[in-house]
Q: What sequence folds into this?
């Protein structure tokens, strides 16, 4: 590495000790990253004149409280200070109070806080923790998510079952069907059910009614529950219990008559994924998003509208080639505002359901939770050079305004890298996009080594976002040129582009990565194509193993986090079988050649590049035997290699102390093999 950039020999001092002074600018380091303030639970008042957010002051902190800010003010007022913190914030319809979850009484319960002054009052006193909740418009009824023993008619029954389990002297897990585990947890007999409860006239409610008492399954979460404005019905998303849980993606929308507790599956005819129900303000329409391909988790989510008067459901803007993430009704009961990945951004769009017109409202960075008032759209936003803040924009797409600057002091003396989006002709001469970042202390005339980041998913993206686990700015701060390519299979470029990776894991994506790196290093000669390290996680880790066998002269070093190594054994040990069955062409025993054709383990004789292998032992998506297999192949062939295991981490590294070590291991490895 050119020594006029940041010295890698001074890695420890740079990365783990702040060099910032009041008058001296520094580059971003991992300490600063973990101390950034993070915005959560963003909600706008029904009147549109104020908003509330939860501010977590650093990843490790217990300073995690609610703040109120007027739309016309730059100052925020801290609302809460209890050490237990708050979450799941909901505004009362009159805007005079808020509801939230807090464990300040010893368990997670609902509290109400008046905004005109006074202490929070406990609204629920259930004997079980509330995982999440929604509230009816009139504030008289709550839908709560509780973890219970299916078949129990009372909450006490679940408490008794837990007490009985605690007395057992043996330790055993027994299963009669899949799924037996998910993400980082072994499944138990207890399931997440949706309950409904009426607010007590005084004090806290102590009882709730299970809307799905016999279900041997879970709801999709309290975030996928919506009350009808009249409070007499609600809708939620869930997957019906079946022995096919592990290999189907058939979530449905259920509507519940709260007077009779009768459930109606309103998406019974669609055997693909249905999600995110939301009622229009007048209650006539129910919008939700739906996929059309069963067993495929990355199919396009299309907006659906169900007319409560006619009972008819229709697709909205069906020909629009973007997959919807969030959707919100405007006050006119018809117009919808949605977010969707879009050419390296996550953008906000306005949809006219009557005509199917789609208009882009904002497209710069990654838009998060949105709220719509009479004339504005409020949203969270982050980008490659900016952590999350709150913004507003007129509904016509003009008058963008940044409402918060929660990290202004932390960024004041920090030099962040410049970045730029680029495109090139990839597989089949089709347009492929990516981003590059200059080293934070870039100097004209110098040549810089490359950090070549490959995203996971594989239907994912390293777009214009501020990522905490794979933060491109940290590599730029170490003096690397950073290159990230959204190869065929990435999201936000049309469904055909996303679908292109299925049955071709090692084909089109590898060609895109090769062509993209060659193209950008030719256009940006300050990047040193002969001095690059490739890094990736999950599918990106798979690609690291695949590069070893198919492009072994391309890089000075490789970093493989939780990468798939042996495809047949991966199928038998992962939990969400719909994923390999779609992308690889079915179960491993049904004759698909993909498991062998695109199997990195079959090409280990070609491996020669020094590789760092990293894995969390609680990872059930890509079980750690995959990393052990790769490391064994490396060691047995005397290829420079290092294995780093995190016993208490899953597919991601979340603990801030572990995250620091993760970055240290990665940067040290790259320093060893780049110059």
A:
């Amino acid at each position: 590495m050119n020594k006029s950039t940041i010295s890698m020999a001074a890695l420890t001092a740079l990365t783990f000790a702040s060099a910032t002074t009041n008058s001296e600018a520094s580059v971003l380091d991992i300490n600063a990253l973990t101390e950034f303030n993070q915005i959560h639970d963003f909600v706008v008042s029904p009147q549109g004149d104020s908003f509330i957010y939860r501010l977590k002051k650093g990843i490790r902190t217990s300073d995690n409280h609610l703040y109120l800010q007027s739309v016309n003010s730059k100052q925020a007022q801290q609302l809460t200070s209890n050490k237990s913190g708050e979450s799941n914030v909901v505004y009362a319809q009159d805007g005079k109070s808020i509801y939230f979850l807090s464990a300040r009484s010893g368990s997670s319960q609902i509290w109400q806080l008046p905004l005109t002054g006074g202490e929070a009052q406990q609204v629920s006193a259930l004997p079980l923790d509330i995982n999440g909740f929604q509230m009816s418009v009139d504030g008289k009824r709550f839908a709560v998510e509780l973890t219970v023993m299916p078949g129990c008619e009372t909450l006490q029954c679940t408490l008794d079952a837990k007490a009985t389990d605690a007395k057992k002297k043996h330790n055993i897990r027994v299963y009669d069907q899949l799924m037996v585990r998910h993400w980082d947890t072994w499944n138990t007999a207890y399931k997440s059910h949706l309950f409904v409860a009426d607010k007590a006239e005084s004090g806290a409610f102590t009882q709730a009614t299970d809307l799905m008492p016999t279900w041997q399954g879970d709801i999709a979460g309290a975030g996928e529950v919506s009350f009808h404005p009249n409070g007499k019905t609600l809708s939620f998303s869930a997957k019906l219990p079946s022995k096919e849980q592990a290999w189907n993606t058939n979530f449905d929308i259920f509507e519940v008559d709260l007077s009779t507790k009768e459930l109606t599956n309103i998406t019974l005819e669609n055997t693909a994924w249905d999600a995110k129900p939301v009622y229009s303000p007048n209650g006539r329409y129910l919008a939700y998003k739906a996929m059309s391909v069963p067993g495929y988790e990355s199919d396009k989510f299309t907006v659906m509208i169900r007319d409560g008067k006619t009972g008819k459901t229709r697709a909205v803007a069906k020909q629009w080639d973007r997959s919807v993430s969030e959707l919100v009704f405007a006050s006119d009961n018809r117009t919808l505002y949605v977010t969707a990945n879009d050419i390296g951004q996550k953008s906000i769009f306005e949809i006219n359901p009557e005509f199917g017109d789609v208009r882009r409202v904002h497209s710069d960075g990654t838009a998060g939770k949105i709220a719509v008032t009479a004339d504005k759209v409020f949203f969270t936003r982050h980008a490659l050079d900016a952590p999350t803040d709150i913004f507003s924009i007129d509904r016509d797409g003009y008058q963008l305004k940044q409402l918060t600057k929660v990290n202004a002091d932390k960024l004041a003396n920090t030099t962040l890298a410049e970045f730029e989006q680029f495109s090139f002709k990839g597989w089949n001469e089709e347009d492929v996009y990516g981003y590059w970042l200059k080293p934070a202390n870039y100097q004209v005339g110098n040549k810089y080594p490359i950090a070549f980041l490959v995203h996971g998913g594989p239907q994912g993206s390293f777009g214009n976002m501020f990522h905490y686990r794979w933060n491109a700015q940290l590599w730029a701060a170490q003096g690397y040129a950073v290159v990230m390519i959204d190869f065929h299979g990435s999201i936000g470029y049309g469904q055909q582009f996303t679908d292109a990776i299925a049955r071709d894991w090692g084909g089109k994506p590898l060609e895109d990565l090769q062509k993209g790196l060659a193209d950008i290093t030719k256009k940006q000669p300050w990047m040193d194509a002969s001095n690059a390290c490739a890094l990736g996680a999950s599918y990106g880790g798979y690609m690291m193993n695949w590069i070893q066998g198919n492009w072994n002269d391309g890089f000075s070093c490789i970093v493989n986090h939780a990468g798939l190594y042996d495809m047949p054994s991966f199928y038998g040990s992962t939990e969400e079988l719909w994923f390999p069955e779609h992308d690889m062409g079915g179960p491993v025993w049904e004759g698909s050649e993909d498991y062998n054709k695109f199997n990195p383990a079959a090409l280990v004789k070609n491996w020669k590049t020094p590789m760092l292998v990293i894995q969390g032992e609680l990872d059930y998506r890509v079980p750690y035997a995959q990393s052990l297999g790769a490391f064994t192949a490396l060691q047995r062939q005397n290829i420079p290699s290092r294995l780093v295991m995190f016993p208490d981490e899953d597919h991601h590294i979340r603990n801030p102390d572990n995250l620091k070590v993760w970055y240290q291991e990665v940067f040290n490895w790259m320093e060893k093999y780049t110059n």
Remarks:
- The mean pLDDT is 95.
- Residues 656-673 form the longest helix (18 residues).
- Residues 466 and 669 are 23 Å apart (CA to CA).
